[in-house]
Automatic annotation (TrEMBL):
Domain Response regulatory: 29-149
Molecular function terms, GO-annotated: ATP binding; sequence-specific DNA binding
Membrane-crossing residue ranges in chain numbering: none
Residue numbers carrying 4-aspartylphosphate: 82
Keywords assigned: ATP-binding, DNA-binding, Nucleotide-binding, Phosphoprotein, Transcription, Transcription regulation
Top-level division of the source organism's lineage: Bacteria
SUPFAM superfamilies: CheY-like (SSF52172), Homeodomain-like (SSF46689), P-loop containing nucleoside triphosphate hydrolases (SSF52540)
Protein name, UniProt field: Two-component response regulator transcriptional regulatory protein
Amino acid sequence: MVTKESHLNEFEFLHNSYESSEDKPSLPEVFLVEDDLIFGKTLKKFIQKKLGLEVSYHSDPGAAIAQINERSSSEQFILITDISFDDGGADGLLLIDLLKEKGHKFIPIVMTGFASIETAIAATKKGVFHYLTKPFELDVLTDLIMKAAISKLGYTEKDFKVETPKVTIPKKSTGIERSFKIEAPNEEDIFCGMIGRSAKMKQVFERIEKVASSGSTVFINGPSGTGKELIASAIHSLSQRVDNPMVSVNCGAIPGELLESELFGHEKGAFTGAISSRKGRFELANKGSIFLDEIGDMPLLLQVKLLRVLQGRVIERVGSTTTTPVDVRIITATHRDLEKHVEDGNFREDLYYRLNVIPIKVPALCERREDIPLLISYFLSRFVSADGRNSIEFDDESLELLLAYDWPGNVRELENLMERLVILRGGSVIRPSDLPVKFLERAPMHLNSYDSLISLPEAGIDLKMALSNIEDSLILQALSKTAGNKNQASKLLSMNRTTLIEKMKKKQIEFQQ
Ligand SMILES: Nc1ncnc2c1ncn2[C@@H]1O[C@H](COP(=O)(O)OP(=O)(O)OP(=O)(O)O)[C@@H](O)[C@H]1O
């Protein structure tokens, strides 16, 4: 039976703190003992990079004891050790006993892949600071090391230079070779309420500036959510027509039979329900601009009527026999491939050429990824309250996922996601698990990140075994990240769910939370 008292005595024996802060070395020493070479090296690199601590790593407990015995037994250190070693001849708890016998003072943290009540009790009896069950997030271990150093060795948080290991976006996956940083747009990145620093958006801005004053018909083409309506507004606001109205009509949202009277107006009695005559949008936009969104969805019959307006600059109300002159600049937009629409016979070729006088092509967001950090910052500044209470931050991994994602819904999708995260996760750090699963599906492969974590040991390596260990580790990490959900984990690993299950069975991998 472990009593609270015996537990405390053990702790006191192990953790008699330094008399004064001057006595302690500048940073705590860490000894790591783990027989899985790849995991051990990964841990060593991660702890060193994140906390700036020197880590002495040994795959063999005997070698660890030899090194520890060489140093002065009065200096306390942190020991991180596996419990069971593959050759069966050593045991992490025995290592703790042997070091204690030699009079060493240290704070033990133990790790095990096979959690059992018996070993947990045995570890507690030995006064371990924490008992970690594999797999665990590497950050959990570094947090524990800091906690141990602060609470047992008298260090303060300031003694550590905590640095989250930087992840560099590989060129292949995103086309950008630099660390991803959220950055507020500066003056040059903002054009008429639009954010853009990429060369592609700068070209769009230049074209808007050039065409705005001309009065010509403009055709804006680009995927949904790329800002076509914003571009139309910019053209209008930079033109001489700015003091007159800009009227927008979504041709795809109004039923075909209503669209004609919506655009051109109607006379009293023109159809059932036409109790009075009414001006259409063209007349309302007189001396200003009309923005015909989703022009590709306009019915063929109406296309003929629009062509007549373009040719004669006059409109004819439904039910009228006379024409009314209109002075309107026409700006149209569609997310469709209008040329293909013409080829398929769904759009009149003559109208297409009339509308396409000045084309503006808007790039999808995935073609201008350098704008993503600016847009994130811009939308956060819009959604986060003035006191910053619901502000959010992103960890490196989630930032990377945001940059690598394809954004099929473009800027609108990014805007909606930021709004949702601020509402649901305001005040916290966003991690990959806070993002919709589809972001994880498209995560890039960090081939080069392995270079910084695993280096070829002097004595060489059993490649087959090493790869198999990496596979195990990644499968377990995917399961851990998705709380054991095999469906989501398989997506993270870009494999079928059934393949994952078969692999787990074959390799006898079991996941316990
Ligand atoms: N460059 C940008 N800077 C800031 N906000 C943008 C930018 N581009 C788009 N947005 C915002 O994204 C949302 C979608 O933009 P908009 O409605 O103009 O897209 P669209 O291309 O017209 O979409 P659809 O084809 O679906 O009509 C809007 O809220 C808009 O303010």
